[in-house]
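Chapter summary example.
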Amino acid sequence: MLPFFRRALVGYAFTYRQITLTKRYWMWEVVFMVYSLATTLAIGFLGAGVQSVAGPGVDISRLILYLLTGSLLWGYLAVIFWDISNMITWERWEGTIEYTFMAPVSRSVHILGMCTWTIFYSLMRAIVMLIIVALVFHLDLSKSNFVGALAVLAVANLSFIGLGTLVAILPLVSPEKGAQMTGIVEGILLLVSGVYYDISVLPGWMQLISKLSPATYALRGMRRALLDGDGITALWNEILPLAILGIVLIPLGLIIFRRMEIYCKKVGLLKRSG
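The structure predicted for these 274 residues follows.
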């Protein structure tokens, strides 16, 4: 039991450090949240204005909720994805990359410690934004199944932890452009995952790529739970692929990250600047 408690304590140290960094840069967190809120509201007003352009016959309430669900969930997942994938960037900003990566700490403990706070913070942020947009657009959530939505969200977290770990390799091997490359990956996921539209409108080859994105299943499951009131049993077709992707991506991400970490130490890429 002692090794387990030691790992838990070390993991909490990384969690606490993330809390401290959030407190230190709290004004920037407010700025980013206002930006995300403005973007989400703009998407909602886009849905509200469709009827004036397309004419009557469009279920505006459902369309607004469809768009807002995509925007809110994407904002939640993007924060998790961004924080994990920029794990190396954080270390370079703080000047601790050499000490952290030379410490006798497993990378799984390091990453899971960071994820604990990131997931909690992302969830609180998403709840605040949901309350605001619900008040602005007078959303009717009486038929929504929040248990099913939370189940989808919980499993989606695993997939995005694994995906974020894989993408974190980019800043590791490229101190100069790795962070920008992370943004490109996020943009591709945004394109193929059906954040603001159903993936059926995509070309066939894009639909094949979308099946590899955990965001596709998370968005579809969340919409079914909030718009149609589907429960966990009905959402199994979305939860199962998310679980499989999480089971595959987390160990795969850790293995590849560890190998690239060893390589970067050998060639001297594990440093504070490019």
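To summarize the output: The mean pLDDT is 82.
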